[in-house]
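Sanity check. The docking grid for 1,3-dihydroxyacetonephosphate depends on where the pocket ends up, so I'm generating a full predicted complex first rather than guessing from homology. Inputs follow.
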Amino acid sequence: MSLVTLQEVLQEAQRGGYAVGAFNTNNMEIVQAIVETAEEERAPVILQASQGALKYAGLSYITAMVRAAATGASVPVVLHLDHGTSFEQAMLCLRHGFTSVMFDGSKYALADNIAHTLRVAEVAHAMEASVEGELGKIGGTEDDISVEEKDAFMTDPAEAEEFVAATGVDALAVAIGTAHGPYKGKPVLDFARLAAIRDRVKIPLVLHGASGVPAESIRRAIELGVCKINIDTDIRQAFTRGVKHVLQNSPAEYDPRKILGPAKAEMKAVIREKIRLFGSAGKA
Ligand code: G3H
Ligand code: 13P
Ligand code: ZN
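Predicted complex below; grid placement will be based on this.
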């Protein structure tokens, strides 16, 4: 199957009341783990690459690998730029065949975030691709910020309404208490804020930093309008667990296939659990 847009899979998810997993990829084993699992679970799926992933693997390699995986699959696959921070980066990805781009303008004030996101959205839509915007700041779990700062970074529901109307984005990433990376304690999500955003914004919402978020919080977020859920850290940890396991048990092993094969199996187990939790299993 050829690649599909984010808008196509999220529209279905919104109608069906489930979320589609957006899994970060950096190499061939991760691409294969994601697409093989989505195929086995009959689930639509989003593969996303950060700017760091594109720098590491190369834009043409990431595009070619995801395209090859999607061509061999019978479930819908989206190729999405994660946290793009420049117009040029978004354009490069679109030219290479990405079907969706995120413009992360969260470092800008509202008016500038709107202006930058709109510029990306106009071109992306003319190319029949989708756009995700971000409002509020989704930081890292390592960021040393106070409770007041944390609150100030959260998405304001009235601004969200204005941002979506002004930019025409297809999906909106919201800051409601999640963060990127491994959590030290249990993450606390602001569901009242999410409900207030949902009242004003009708497009699919996106939850970043979802690794390590308890299952009951994920289910509640989906009930309140989250249709795309980003997972990276849980996959990275599964990969590393798999590699460590082989090297600890067989320190003399030198065949990359015998080291990375088990890592792929570990990643697939995590991805399967997420797909089932998000309710997207059996939806393709
Ligand atoms: O949102 C961040 C993603 O986990 C990507 O992380 O920039 O280290 O590739 P990265
Ligand atoms: P985690 O690494 O915390 O799962 O976050 C992933 C993410 O939000 C990618 O954009
Ligand atoms: Zn993110």
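Relevant for the grid: The chain has a mean pLDDT of 97.
Also worth noting: The longest helix spans residues 256-278.
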